[in-house]
């Protein structure tokens, strides 16, 4: 009787573990889909802001989240923020992406998306 109880207990614990792991994976998958959608929206927002500010289109976008920024990219993002009168310490924002793209002439450009707000370089003429 005791061994049957142990067997049932082990099976119950194993079932709970499987359900728990499956639930965690589902939550991770949902979060990744949400993050991908946010990143796609950021790219679209940067293109629109650039077009509104310059009348030019942008291509070849690459976005880099804060936790993957190199030191030089972090400095670039900080300078763009500072040039627009914003806090330059990237850790003060919940989300930060450096979005690199090419303008109509093929020149490499960058913008920052900080907490969902597009920030173009100050010399662009405007920021959204």
SSE layout and pairing:
Layout: H1 2-54, E1 59-65, H2 71-83, E2 96-102, E3 108-114, E4 117-119
Antiparallel strand pairs: 1-2, 2-3, 3-4
Describe this structure as you would to a colleague.
- The protein is of the alpha+beta class and 128 residues long.
- It has one domain (2-124).
- The protein is built from two helices and four strands, in the order H-E-H-E-E-E.
List keywords for this structure.
single chain, 128 residues, alpha+beta, 2 helices, 52% helix
Brief characterization of the structure:
The protein is α+β, with helices and mostly antiparallel strands and 128 residues long. It has 2 helices and 4 strands.
Rg measurement, Å: 23 Å
Distance between the termini: 71 Å
How many structural domains? 1
N-to-C SSE string, H for helix and E for strand: HEHEEE
Structural class category: alpha+beta
Q: Let me know the largest β-sheet.
A: 4 strands, antiparallel
The dominant shape is: elongated
The strand count comes to 4
Q: Enumerate the strands of the largest sheet in spatial order, edge to edge or round the barrel.
A: 1-2-3-4
**Share of helical residues:** 40-55%
Low-confidence stretches: 28-32
Helix count? 2
Indicate the proportion of strand residues.
Answer: 15-25%
- The average pLDDT score comes to 83
